[in-house]
Amino acid sequence: MKHSIDIAWGEMQQEEDITNYKFNTEEELNAFLDGVNECLGWADYSVIGDGQTYNTIEEWRKENGKTT
Question: CA-CA distance, 16 to 20, in Å (whole number)?
Fold first, then answer.
């Protein structure tokens, strides 16, 4: 099973700033997120995926006042 998350990058997040990342294992995904967390303070971001900051892009849209 592939593991996938979306990340909305930037301090003034726009939907076009969302990038999808796919990983072969949960360990790879967690290592990636560890690296992203290390950059906190350099740039802002929101992680979108099951059990993350936002579970879905729709949830991110609602929280950030974005509509499609």
Answer: 11
